[in-house]
Write a structure and sequence with these properties.
The chain has 15 helices and 18 strands. The chain is an alpha+beta fold. The chain has a 6-stranded antiparallel sheet with strand order 3-2-1-6-5-4, with helices on both faces. The chain has a 5-stranded antiparallel sheet with strand order 8-7-11-10-9, sandwiched between helices. The model has no long low-confidence stretch (mean pLDDT 80).
């Protein structure tokens, strides 16, 4: 027999009996299958544990494969909450209701599971109804005779328990016990990873929800000035028609801006503030806050934007109201001083008129004195009414009447400057809910602006006052054939303190205040203008105000 033959005989076991040979081969194959199954289970735990897969599904997957090599019928997972000193049921597969007698939180007293935690070692427990453990009753109800309980460790700390229940008592060797611990360790790591991931995800969602819930625009900008994140308010307010990219482009309209709020924040590495005008019509307070990493270096800038346009308009209205209050007080004093001599003038003029005939030249002179005195009284009365800004009561009023009152105050100025005022007022125009004095203030502002625009033209000067009703709205328009405005000035005409007039001829507050009055009446003001040809201002008011 050759050496080769001897080697083959030894390998195939020809020298042994066939019966022993096949028995040993079968045992070896079963052991190999068992080890392969165990490896598959460990691999499935490593591969299958993710945020989408529930623990119930994972235990179902593990139990299905384990039943090919072990007699386990039930798997359980328990979480240990150290901060609360509580042991809670996390998952039991298949699901049962028997633990309701104990509750989701296991009591420390007479608890087999707590004993395993306190001893910090695994337990192979054979169910005995004579034992006083609180878990014995559920075990018996589930027909479980043997429970393998293993602590779950992460970084040397127990985070819970993993148990395997069987309906028969089985003797497990050292290899089996080692596998149970390896499986438990892998479940512990996977469970902790999922828990940490879920915790981070919850924090992320909480931050994003808080970020989005803020009503003011907030931007997160990197060190290159590129916006990496913006809340919903920023997307709607700053860039409603496209993507937000560069911060300077949003705030200043250009990519590079010397001394920008971003550059100042980066240079000083401290919070900075600026008041800017965005989108050519919105006044904003802009705050920049540096964000530091653990090394103390700036790695992001938070930009917080607050719209203060309404605030500016209110401030302007307060300023204007203060001026009007001062004018009112002054006008009241002047009225008292003028009314006395006017009363004497009118009275004496009436007495003298009675002594003269209508054909005499003296009668016409006295009649002119009397009419001028009456006009002066009306002007003073209208001025006092207009300046009385202490009560903004809304009541039923007529826009046409407001036009008449205004012309009674400033119509003489228009005639003195050779301005033709044409009225095109709708007849039987409905009454509206509003404040007569405020509406008159808007009309006066329109008229004075038109008068100033006509000073610079040498053609016949004309102002047309028009009212009309369309649908549920009333329109009051003032058209002039004055100097007009260019497109840029038209876009800025309602900005506080913006004016096209010469220094000391205008404050830039009139139209801003007028717009605020229109909005308080749930209306609006529109303007169209052509440079060199004239302008049209239109006050739009609802026939019926909401609320």
């Amino acid at each position: 027999m050759t050496d080769r033959q001897v080697m083959i005989d030894r390998l195939v076991g020809v020298q042994s009996s066939k019966k022993n040979y096949y028995a040993a081969l079968k045992t070896s194959i079963n052991e190999m299958k068992k080890k392969n199954t165990q490896l598959e289970i460990i691999h499935d735990v490593m591969k299958g544990f993710n945020i989408e897969m529930s623990m119930n599904d994972m235990l179902h997957l593990i139990l299905e494969k384990m039943q090919a090599i072990f007699s386990f019928k039930r798997l359980s997972l328990f979480e240990l909450h150290h901060e609360r000193d509580q042991l809670r049921v996390h998952t039991i597969y298949p699901e049962i209701a028997h633990y309701q007698d104990i509750g989701p939180i296991f009591p420390r007293e007479r608890s087999l599971y707590w004993q395993v935690i306190m001893e910090s070692k695994s337990r192979n427990y054979i169910v005995d109804k004579a034992d006083d453990y609180v878990e014995v009753t559920p075990f018996i109800q589930l027909n479980l005779k043997q429970i393998i309980i293993l602590p779950m460790y992460v970084q040397g700390k127990i985070i819970g328990l993993f148990s395997l229940g069987s309906e028969e008592i089985v003797e497990y060797d050292e290899h089996d016990r080692r596998f149970f611990q390896q499986l438990t360790d892998q479940i512990a790591v996977s469970h902790e990873n999922v828990r940490l991931y879920q915790e981070v995800l919850n924090k992320k969602n909480e931050w994003e929800q808080t970020f989005s819930a803020v009503m003011d625009p907030i931007l997160l900008v990197d060190l290159e000035g590129i916006v990496v994140q913006a809340n919903e308010a920023a997307q709607q307010f700053l860039q409603p028609d496209g993507d937000i990219l560069m911060l300077n482009e949003i705030l200043y309209g250009i990519d590079e801006q010397a001394g920008s709020i971003f550059d100042r924040c980066m240079a000083g590495q401290t919070a900075v503030y600026a008041e800017l005008k965005l989108l050519d019509q919105v006044y904003c307070e802009v705050y920049a806050y540096p964000v530091f990493n653990e090394q103390g270096n700036v790695y992001h800038i938070i930009i917080y934007v607050r719209d203060i346009t309404k605030k500016r308009q209110y401030e302007v209205q307060i300023m204007q109201s203060g001026k009007l209050a001062a004018i009112g007080e002054m006008a009241a004093g002047v009225a008292h001083e003028l009314n006395n001599p006017l009363t004497a003038i009118l009275g004496n003029a009436q007495l003298l008129l009675r002594k003269e005939t209508k054909e005499s030249s003296t009668y016409h002179l006295l009649h002119d004195i009397y009419e001028c005195g009456k006009r002066s009284q009306n002007i003073i009365r209208n001025l006092l009414t207009f300046s009385r800004q202490d009560e903004y009561l809304f009541e039923r009023c007529s826009v046409n009447e407001a036009v008449d009152n205004v012309l009674g105050m400033i119509g003489y100025q228009m005639r003195q400057q050779q301005i033709q005022v044409t009225l095109d007022l709708a007849k039987d125009i409905p009454l509206i809910d509003g404040n007569m004095q405020q509406i008159e203030q808007v009309i006066i502002n329109f008229m004075l602006n038109a008068k100033d625009a006509l000073e610079e033209v040498d053609r016949p000067k004309e102002i047309i006052l028009e009212t009309k009703v369309a649908g549920s709205l009333i329109y009051l328009s003032v058209h002039d054939n004055g100097i007009g405005m260019n497109e840029q000035a038209t876009g800025q005409i309602f900005d506080p303190f913006f004016t096209t007039k010469q220094v000391r001829k205008g404050t830039g507050l009139g139209l801003s205040v007028s717009l605020g009055i229109a909005e308080s009446h749930q209306g609006d003001i529109s303007v169209t203008s052509t440079f060199g040809k004239g302008s049209s201002f239109t006050l739009q008011l609802p026939l019926q105000m909401e609320n």
